[in-house]
Amino acid sequence: QGHLIESGGGLVQAGGSLRLSCAASGRTFSNYAMGWFRQGRGKERVFVATINRNGDSTDYADSVKGRFTISRDNAKNTVYLQMNSLNPEDTAVYYCAADATLYRVRVGTPGYWGQGTQVTVSS
């Protein structure tokens, strides 16, 4: 059974940066596509970014393009989300996702979810 554990969330001022990490265990997640989603209070969980197994293909929601960067270190079984130029609209719980199929990650039906980490951006 695989597990995903997010870390790196917190409180940051608008314009600031945070780096989220998602540590995977229990599976060889280097064989899995990974992604990040977020859920604001009272809102649905939405796609943020995905990365393929090799890390050479990424995809981003329009709302974060140019500000967020997803990356992975397969040797450490970890995926990252570097978030720059944060604004209050980025406030949400951020979830890590993994699946053997990139499509399933992209559409939000992955086999694995993390427990989430809170990101709060103050104005």
Helix-strand makeup class: mainly beta
- Helices and strands, in order, run as EEEEEEEEEHEE
Strand share of the residues? over 45%
Low-pLDDT ranges: none
**Inertia-based shape:** globular
Measured distance between first and last alpha carbons = 40 Å
SS element count, helices: 1
Total count of strands:
11
Describe the largest sheet.
7 strands, mixed
How much helix, percentage-wise, in residues?
under 10%
Summed over residues and divided by their number, the pLDDT gives a mean of 96
Q: Please compute the radius of gyration using only Cα atoms.
A: 13 Å
Q: Overview of this structure, please?
A:
The chain is mainly beta. Helices cover 4% and strands 50% of the residues. It is built from 1 helix and 11 strands, in the order βββββββββαββ. The longest helix is centred in the last third of the chain and has 5 residues. The termini are far apart.
